[in-house]
Design brief:
alpha/beta, 2 domains, two-stranded antiparallel sheet, D-Maltodextrin-Binding Protein, domain 2, single chain
Amino acid sequence: MRRLADITLLAALGIALPAHAEEPVYAPSLRVCADPNNLPFSNQAGEGFENKLAQMVARTLGWSVTYTWWAQRRGFVRQTLKAGLCDVVMGVPAHYDLVETTKPYYRSSYVFISRAERRLDLSSLDDPRLHALSIGVHLIGDDGNNPPPAHALGQEGIIDNVRGYPIYGDYRQPNPPARLIDAVSAGEIDVAAAWGPLAGYFAKQSSVPLAVTPIDDDGRFAPLRFRFAIAMGVRKGDDVLRDRLNGFIDDNKAAITALLASYGVPLVGSAQTASGGH
């Protein structure tokens, strides 16, 4: 029907058709669900490591890459992947219950980030020095669904000296979650507790030397977790694409690790998995 409509339109425009017009053959496309303003993960200019990873996958499979752009906040999976607008989310927690996940392709940790000149060398959220430092954390919402460091600090009674930075922020500005790291660079706060890939990337971009150290508290604040395995996510039941992606991960571990290292992503050897979210 679409071909007939196209032929009719061409005829109406007075454009001659070849004697034996054939349907064009298109290469399959890796249809990616992604945030257009969320470095170091993705942006519309293709500068994030998830953009680069999608290109690697597509090149290996002989496919092209297309995107459905959507702000990655609550409702992201429902409005994109589950709606059939795209087929893969390049970064989700392993065993994330809203999608079918691949095997993990990296593991990272929440970290402390501070100005290197301070030489704080923090590694635990129960460090007594945190009671006297100004601390920045990301806030997701007012329903208690905030990142693990925010909850752990509350358990330690560290509240009055904690400053929250909305993780969604002002979407009119580039990469809203980076405002937390900017606050450390500017000296507005002494230290931040943030997700490692975000902190590691923006520490590399900072004009002020910043120190990034993993939060080594897994088990101490159970059931809170600070290390997570990250996978790709496809629609439930899409085993064919999941298996292709698993094959890519198996065959390209060194290249994936090198890509992540180039973005400053702190990698850890073991991790908890998680579910829930968008």
